[in-house]
User: What shape does this take?
Amino acid sequence: MNPYRLFKEKSLGKAIVYLLTGNLLLGIGYIALLPIWEGFDETAHFSYLQQVADTGTFPLDRNARISTDVEAYYVHAPVPQALSEGIPLENRLTYRSFFSQPEKFLSDARELIHDSPENSRKYLPGRGNNWQAQHPPLYYVFLSPVYLLTKSLSWAGQIFILRLSSYILAWIGLVVTVCGCLGMARSQRSPEQVQLWYWAALGTGLWPVLFPAWFSDMARMGNDSICCLLLSSIWFVSVRMVQEGLSIKYFFLLGLLLSLGCLTKAFFVPITFSVLGFWMFREWKLQGSKGLWKAIRFSTYALIIMLVMGWWWYWNNYVQYGVILGSSELRVLKEAGGLWKGLEFGYSFFQWVRGHVVLLVTVGWVGSWSFVKPPLILLFPIAFSLLWVMSFFLWALPRRKVHSAEWLPVWMAFLVLAGLSYHVLVRIALTGEGRGTSGYYIHILAGPLATALGISLYAMWAKRIFKTVMQIFFGYAVLFSIGITWAQALFFSGIAFAGENEKIIHFPESLPSFFGILEAFQRLKILVFPEAGSILWVSGWLFVIAGLVYARRFANHSIRPL
Assistant: This one.
């Protein structure tokens, strides 16, 4: 074997293993340090899960309520800023006001969070409306056994295990993607193509490092995690079919995976059109009308599977609300007279641009449900790194055929991005503001998009200046992730606080010793698991840094012939 190839394969393998291990440990550490309900929409996801597991019913009539267990928690412990609308201001505990309470109050709160309840939790409808009832039930059915096994544990223990179960699903999605990339590399005859798919595999391990919003989205209770696994699996099946040719077996798998996706989140409806459209276009380009009709016939089989498995949920949406996807905002928009009527009175170009900037920034980092953030200028390098990577990917693609596997991430992401852009218009029509469309949803496509990241790195690495800029971006992302973890720990421990208007995080004029870390550690014992979280977080970064070292070794030798 060529010694350069052997060296690169060993460096690549170590880089991927270290990066994936580090991302797993960082995700678990993030969970251990994240207070209860700080994950986006977790109160609603938990209540939906309780309803499915304890009552065996789905919220088909959209009258589901937040659980009384959740609402009882509000009285005794701090809750995210997002929940303030449902709680009288004088009764809402912020992290700062919580830690200023008497010692007896804090002791009782610690007991509530870390001790097992006298009676197992059970779903009873509370006062608040469950807005996540718009989602199909697969995620909650899948997680029901985990909930039932943990319902007698402490709040902290149960939420940790439920979040961990979700995160592992998403992390397996990255592993599936790596396996698909390495399989493609083994099947290539061209040395350039082998290198490209090696880089695609490497990009999968690098994705969470460059875009830390991955952890905010996936290391929480929420159906995005299973979406990530399903989309990575759809990508895997598709690239296998690129290798082996059109097959009814693989279309059956695509139909099954797309069906499960549509029973998890409505995002899979446009993704279905994207994936099947790719195969129709590909076969038409390769074999003309004969190939096109074959792809249409196989796609029909996949659609039949999807209709058999998922028609009931979307038909119920249409019958009850006249909106097949079931989105609560689309229902409100329809009742208000439609998109154009809303835009006629509320549209502004500034808000449209603002909405897309928010969309871009929140792909890179989004924080937690308290919505606190660092000064905005610190977020723009991560957002710009996304634009930088996208530019090089799109620059590299014209040299490759539109029906090739390298183009598949574009096919899968295009309608999702178009849908998010449309949602910016929906927000403007409903509220007059472009805010509210979060780019962190893009992380459900982390598997295929991470391969695009790798291909982009491959395209730029031969030019010293572009390589240097990319290394600066990665260095900044690492430093940002470390710094924002420290800032959030101080916020969750009540040492730092949020500004009144833009929710920018502020620090006291004089921090406690060691930058407030020791005091934050002691305070966080009431809310989370700082001991385990710190060990996992440090270990995760050690693995990631080792992975980056090996990734750089692989990259610097990749320009040599295989």
